[in-house]
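Q: I have two molecules that I believe assemble together. Could you output structure tokens for the complex as a whole instead of separate predictions?
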Amino acid sequence: MLQPGAELSPQAAAFEAIRKRRLRHVGEIAIKGFLSLCAAVSLITTVLIVLVLFSESLTFFDHVSFSDFFLETEWQPLFEPVSFGIWELVAGTMNVVLWSLVLALPVGLAAAVYLSEYAHPRTRRVLKPLLEALASVPTVVYAYFALSVVTLDVLRPAFGNDVPIFNSLSASIMLAVMILPTIASISEDAMASVPRDLREAAYGLGATRLEVSFRVVVPAALSGVAAAVLLAIARVVGETMIVAIAAGSTPNLTLAPLEGIQTMTGYMLQVGLGDAARGTIDYQSIFAVGMMLFLITLLFNIASTMLVNRFREVYE
Amino acid sequence: MAVRSDPVSLRSSGAVARRQALSRVSRYALLAASLLGVAVLIYLGYETIREGASRLSWDFISSYPSRFADRAGLRSSILGTAWVMGATIVVAFPISIGTAIWIEEFAPRNRLLTLVKLNLANLAGVPSIIYGILGLALFSRYLGLGPSILAGALTLSLMIIPMTVIASQEAIRQVPPSIRDGSLALGATHWQTVRHHVLPGAMPGIMTGIILSVSRAVGETAALIMIGAFTFIAFDNTKLTDDFTTVPIQIYNWTIRPQPEFRQNAAAAIIVLMVAVVSLNLVAAIIRERFRRD
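A: Yes, here they are, computed for all two components at once.
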């Protein structure tokens, strides 16, 4: 014990110092070990996702052949005669991706151009966080609006009362609101990183602000805009609550906006709601569909990251 | 010397005037597009309050769910949300900070680190329902936890860890290297430097990231439904192995019923949920502003 003011022989003091340093060293190693364990959690998560999706999908494909899964056009797993053609669900997902992009892309791009090229810095400081607030709204809230506000108060008055209560357009409209900040914010970042010289050269040639924005800045920021769109697609593909509540639960091979459809995520949630017993075919089917979903979102996310990295390399 | 009869005008005419007019008008069209999202947000907020405000009362907050719309309330779902969020924070907080510290301070700069970073970026993009079926297969079924609070919290933890790690990394990178060098030069070990100098400096940023992730988790519905949390709960949760329900699940439950009275309940529950989400975001914004390093 080292008391304040207590005298220690030089030898004992040296001994004490070595002992402390060694303890510190051991502690240091233990902490480093703990930290690398923490980092391993995320790697293990990925391994587990792939493992679970693979192993349950494999048992699914014991019962349903690969060719049925990819070549049949009916998805009817819950009633006789059962049929597992994934394309109806993929078509449902593509349906909402298509219509939500048709709505969100022009608006998001226009907002990005305004924020980057037109807005006073003070306006931007207010407007951008407000726009990004749309991303923090829980999707079950958007789902409620899709069903009770969009379909009943907007679509039925606009397109007549034979619009089905569950339709892909109501879901797509709320999905568009959900991805608007993704598209606007990431595109704006890309536009802001376009070098000033390009703009000034165009202004020097007599171009107006509108022409500079859409003929110089937008083309120069195109890979960033594309990255934003790919990210938005990945989010729409993975979104569950909005499509499960508002788009219906009837698998339908169509891209028409005013029809009831079912997406991949919508099907998974439907099975999740009923307590599917382990080992049954519908329990396994959600992993096969999940596998498909995982691969599609992974593809879009990776493509988006690669594009973002590319436009960084060009301008920084 | 010829004298020009017409005065020189800088005002453009013809095609140039048209282009300039178009450009001037475009400002308002583009502003309208930027305001559209905000307008939708305000409209939806107004609709919800109009629909649900009359249902908000202490009874609504403190009653169990019921098959009668006017007697149903949020008690078990608010308690369930609190339990799941608490457990999620306890699990995700240390793991996220640990991972971020390892990446920024201790990791060898090699291919393993690139792999870990790439993996985190991809995990952040994995849809929540995939975490849901992972939780279902792994925690609920394989580990036998069932649709319990613990299974829900573990599932949500895996979901938010990538987000919180990325935010924490950002915060740790903001701490100037001179502080580390100073501490190391005085003989502090690597960990002491991190513990006493890097972490305190990075804490506001880390807290902001964690609060934002929690606000994401509070609204999460699909992942919890997948592990089997779509159940009728009419008791107060007391332990981690209890079954549970949450506010967003209750909103889902009320939204899909055809009766308009339940839709009112859904709107009222949305007000409660949004108050929670907005408060969390406000707290995060306040922390960020207060500790902003200029």
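A: One point stands out. Chain A has two domains: 10-63, 71-315.
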